[in-house]
Amino acid sequence: MPSRKRTSVAASVSVGPLAEPDLDRADEIFRVAFGTFLGVPEPETFFGTADYVRTRWAADPHAAFAATVEGEVVGSNFAADWGSVGYFGPLTVRPDLWDQGIGRHLMEPIMACFDTWENRHLGLFTFSHSPKHLELYRRYGFWPRFLTAIMKKQVAVSAAVPGRVLYGELTAAERPEALTLSRALTESVYDGLSMDREIMATQAQGLGETILLEGSDSDLEGLAVCHCGAGSEAGEDVCFVKFGAVRPGPDAADRFERLLTACEQLATEKGLGATGRRSEPGPPGCLPAHGRPRFPYLAARRDHAQAKRAWIQPLGRLRNRRLALSDHHALPTGCHRPIDHTLSAPSPR
Ligand SMILES: CC(C)(COP(=O)(O)OP(=O)(O)OC[C@H]1O[C@@H](n2cnc3c(N)ncnc32)[C@H](O)[C@@H]1OP(=O)(O)O)[C@@H](O)C(=O)NCCC(=O)NCCS
């Protein structure tokens, strides 16, 4: 790329909050960017009826950013605050402007959000086969960790799961207590992890449902934030488990089975029987009992506050717990080999 061109475009880029009137344009760029990167025939239709840009903007407009050149939106990026955990994406730039520094500009406000929120652990999902992506994020301290398989399966009619409660069916008076219990569960998975914002955004925008699995005592055994159908991150005829977690311990596998069955039950109830999409968290290389690996990802994460001092230890704690950070951009490889044994120990910067 000629350095003069790069300099001239980079100099005219400005980054600021993504404004509501610019959502359509940001959404178009989001689709065409992924579609172009993946080489699909009609990139502008990529992701079909799934919506990321509007839904993530609505979840937190203060954490949604646009890059503009001469007043025109040319890319966007979104941060999400999950308590002690922060993650971001989708980051997209108009394809004719790639490799001119705009993606990096769009990383700056995201990193500023994480500083403000004081998240301790940061992550994203990206394309494991792309040196460009790995290098782009490495510059912000993100290192490859392990591949996360995004699974898809046909949903069969399943038996009702005892103890399943839907957040959307609770009264306004009951919801704060449900959030407290959810937080207790996610904190048992990773200290400070909170799904409050995801649960409330899903509810407020009518994107799907949050499943709460009651245990024999007053605690929750499982939690799944599900997006359902067109206009959500799932897309038409799909129930997408955006986040799923169960209480750790000896019976965690059984609890996880129950949670997945409860997700299938939800998909059936919502008339999403044709396809279901689930992401299943777990140790590197641990594939779920059901389903077929469909969209593998490389998860790159870093410990934000202690990146230099304690890199491996907090990641090690996290990787053996039931934490799902999920996204489902298609990646045309069948690889789901954990690669963290080669890349999990960066040298101090
Ligand atoms: C990924 C994306 C957002 C990057 O935006 P961009 O504006 O092209 O990125 P930038 O130019 O700011 O930065 C790319 C960096 O990668 C580097 N890079 C590019 N190709 C590379 C390669 N083959 N190997 C190593 N580094 C490479 C560039 O040199 C640049 O770093 P520099 O600024 O220090 O020179 C854009 O390509 C896009 O929209 N892709 C499709 C959607 C997507 O994949 N989004 C991300 C999902 S996680």
Largest sheet composition: 8 strands, mixed
CATH H-level superfamily of the largest domain: Gcn5-related N-acetyltransferase (GNAT)
Average pLDDT across residues? Answer: 79
Order of helices and strands: HEHHEEEEHEHEEEHHEEEHEEEHH
Distance between the termini: 28 Å
CATH architecture type of the largest domain: 3-Layer(aba) Sandwich
* Total domains: 3
Helical percentage: 25-40%
| Helix/sheet category | alpha+beta
The top-level CATH class of the largest domain is Alpha Beta
Structure description:
The protein is α+β, with helices and mostly antiparallel strands and 349 residues long. The protein has 3 domains: 3-119, Gcn5-related N-acetyltransferase (GNAT) (Aminopeptidase, 3-Layer(aba) Sandwich); 122-147 and 296-349, no CATH class; 151-279, Gcn5-related N-acetyltransferase (GNAT) (Aminopeptidase, 3-Layer(aba) Sandwich). 32% of the residues lie in helices and 26% in strands. The protein contains 10 helices and 15 strands. It has helices at 3-12, 23-37, 53-59, 102-117, 131-138, 175-189, 196-205, 252-269, 312-319, 340-343, and strands at residues 13-17, 64-69, 72-82, 85-88, 92-93, 121-126, 143-148, 150-153, 164-166, 208-214, 220-229, 235-246, 275-279, 292-293, 297-303. Strands 1, 2, 3, 4, 5, 6, 7 and 15 form an 8-stranded mixed β-sheet that branches. The relative contact order is 0.15. Mean pLDDT is 79; it is low at 274-349. It binds coenzyme A (COA). Coenzyme A binds at residues 33-34, 37, 89-93, 98-104, 126, 131-133, 135-136.
